[in-house]
Amino acid sequence: GENVEQHPSTLSVQEGDSAVIKCTYSDSASNYFPWYKQELGKRPQLIIDIRSNVGEKKDQRIAVTLNKTAKHFSLHITETQPEDSAVYFCAASLATTSSALEPAPSMNSGYSTLTFGKGTMLLVSP
Amino acid sequence: GAVVSQHPSRVICKSGTSVKIECRSLDFQATTMFWYRQFPKQSLMLMATSNEGSKATYEQGVEKDKFLINHASLTLSTLTVTSAHPEDSSFYICSAREGAISEAFFGQGTRLTVV
Q: Chain B within 8 Å of A100 (Cβ-Cβ)?
């Protein structure tokens, strides 16, 4: 099955600095890569995702890059703020659908998996 | 975003008893549901994946007879921890997604304590 490695396990930065978290995956068929943020005592929440047909996606201070050849993807947070402090999880998803270009979720798209990395605890100091 | 409701949020049970945890998608049809176990300050360990109407696929090392998963409808999946023991004490969390390549939404988790 899929194996997702995530580094670093902990990351401490000063407010305003950038933070980068890297993940690698093992199954070249994986085609969807979400990033989740989990604050203490709360459920994980999606912050950004990328599909295998694009190499980069940005949403304000957050960006994700994907290198399919090398099978790695990274999360970039710029101008970090104390409220960015949380545990961040990357994940890789493999689906039986043949295309990653679907514009909308498919109701009957067969089997899918969602494998998470071990998480990175990000601490942003004021 | 979509809402996934997990119940109960906390449960304490005696060793040897069984506990059922429910995971419901409230405003979408979850074709796939995932069950995870999370230890303190650790990652989400996938226990099993279930697609509606079919048997759950368990990860290696997860006992299917101990952790019974039922995904009987497009909005409900249940995890039953049978003959619970103290080592089963953990935080169990489900997630659900509507399509294969779409966001997975998480329930709020269940803190299970076996005494």
A: yes
